[in-house]
Specification:
Elements (H helix, E strand, L loop, with lengths): L3 H17 L4 E17 L2 E19 L2 E7 L4 H17 L32 H16 L4 E20 L4 E17 L6 E9 L8 H14 L9 E7 L1 H14 L2 H5 L20 E4 L21 E5 L2 E2 L6 H7 L7 E2 L7 E2 L3 E4 L6 H5 L4 E9 L9 E12 L2 E14 H7 E3 L9 E2 L3 E9 L2
Parallel strand pairs: 7-14, 13-18
Antiparallel strand pairs: 1-2, 1-4, 2-3, 4-5, 5-6, 7-19, 8-9, 8-13, 9-10, 11-12, 14-15, 15-16, 16-19, 17-19
Helix pairs in contact: 3-4
Length: about 450
């Protein structure tokens, strides 16, 4: 695989070819990855997968018209043809007054922070198999487990590069290690399934395979004998496995494109009290080894730490350059490029700050409620904020967990839900969006 410097040179070369072919402006995104994964099931080797990919994407401008095209053929002749075709496409495209690059004066030139995203240790296939076997063995050893969907251990390496014709070029690499296990418990119609997984840039940051497997087994066994839930309005506790999805809905609603299209339930809510006073949601794209750490964004702007929500109020929209021009703002360093096409929007590592109460204290006064560990379906309306999703988890009776439940729906409106959020103290730091246990009062439960 190419080094970051070589990847940057590839992107620069394609930009030069596009300019020589007649593009008014151009940018190129290069990405490559390699990975190896081993899956075992019931103690036997199930699958060995090795993948390698390399792709380059070109975006060109002819005045205010633009087009994007990509290829996995990086030979000189193919790249020249790619540039010529992109320019022909751009000249036939409609004009877009908002499309274009980030302002040149905002481009970052480095030096960029050291993010420690590359693990020099590369596990051999035999080591990956041993990790998968250890995870599955631990999961199957839990009482009540009757079958297995398998366990997987994988490792990979990737590189990303961006170059523009108006003065930016940069690249960085990262590694990824992951372990997962999924098992089945019970018999007949009472069977249940659950899983556990972890991912990190460095293998040493993962829990042991046995710990991951044991967690998968315990989660599955805890669901055995699931009952039904009655309907009504009651408090809901969101386990950290699912609480991050609520913050994800917030992030989607404050992207510049959603605001510019007037398709966000947070439209005109900038600076208003959305959450309870004291709620903090922060972003840190420079966290060492963070899953979403990156030195620059998809337009060559510096990434930076910021508070997305401060004292319960949204502090600003997440803007790439096109949305900034449309809204009369300034790009915020949140542009994302995953291949061809115009930039999208993404964030760095996010966390919702922990509260003062433990999860047990958070539910201690709930006479009748639900503790959600699994969400099903996509029943969220980004325009109105209406929220309705299938769920599974546990009943809460008298302030304590009282047995597994499934096949019920939780519903509300995200604006009201945000206002009712109370955070527990159990914040962990191994996800891209790190959120503690959350309590939301007054949700509607639809069960039997």
């Amino acid at each position: 695989m190419l080094t970051p410097d070589q990847a940057r040179d590839r992107a620069l070369d394609l930009v030069d070819r596009a300019r020589r072919a007649g593009a008014d402006a151009a940018d190129a995104v290069y990405g490559a990855s390699s990975s190896e994964g081993i899956q075992v099931r019931l103690g036997k080797l199930e699958d060995v997968e090795r993948s390698e990919s390399e792709h380059i994407a070109l975006r060109v401008f002819s005045g205010t018209r633009s087009a994007s095209i990509g290829s996995s053929d990086l030979s000189p002749g193919a790249l020249d043809e790619l540039a010529a075709r992109a320019i022909d496409m751009a000249r036939a495209a409609p004009e877009d007054a908002y499309a274009g690059f980030a302002p040149a004066e905002l481009l970052t030139q480095g030096p960029w922070p050291e993010l420690d995203l590359i693990d020099p240790a590369e596990p051999a296939p035999a080591a990956l198999r041993a990790m998968a076997e250890e995870a599955e063995d631990a999961a199957r050893a839990v009482a009540g487990i009757t079958n297995s969907d398998g366990a997987t251990a994988s490792a990979g390496l990737g590189v990303f590069a961006l170059a523009t014709s108006h003065g930016f070029s940069g690249a960085y690499g990262s590694t990824n290690h992951s372990i997962s296990a999924s098992v089945v418990g019970g018999e007949g119609s009472g069977k249940q399934r659950d899983n556990a997984w972890r991912s990190a840039h460095h293998g040493t940051d993962l829990p042991s395979p046995a710990e991951i497997g044991r967690l998968a087994g315990e989660r599955t066994a805890a669901k055995l004998g699931s009952g039904k839930m009655k309907s009504g309005a009651m408090p809901v506790i969101f386990d950290p496995r699912v609480s991050a999805t609520l913050v994800g809905h917030l992030l989607g609603a404050i992207t510049g494109h959603a605001i510019a299209r007037r398709s966000s339930f947070l439209l005109d809510k900038l600076g208003e009290q959305i959450f309870a006073p004291g709620i903090l949601i922060a972003e840190d794209p420079h966290a060492p080894r963070g899953l979403r750490s990156r030195p620059f964004d998809g337009e060559g702007l510096a990434t930076r730490a910021r508070n997305i929500v401060e004292d319960g109020r949204v502090t600003g929209w997440l803007l790439d350059s096109a949305a900034a021009r449309q809204l009369g703002g300034v790009p915020t360093g949140h542009a994302a490029r995953s291949g061809g096409g115009a930039p999208g929007v993404t964030t760095g590592n996010i966390h919702l700050a922990a509260g003062a109460l433990s999860p047990a204290e958070l539910m201690a006064d709930i006479a009748d409620g639900v503790y959600v560990t699994e969400l099903i379906g996509q029943g969220v309306n980004g325009v109105t904020g209406d929220y309705s999703r299938g769920a599974a988890g546990f009943r809460i009776v008298g302030g304590e967990l009282a047995g597994p439940i499934s096949e019920f729906t939780i519903a509300g409106n995200l604006l009201r839900m945000f206002a009712q959020i109370t955070a527990a103290s159990d914040l962990e730091w191994h996800r891209a969006i790190n959120v503690p246990t959350l309590r939301v009062d007054g949700m509607t439960i639809a069960g039997d």
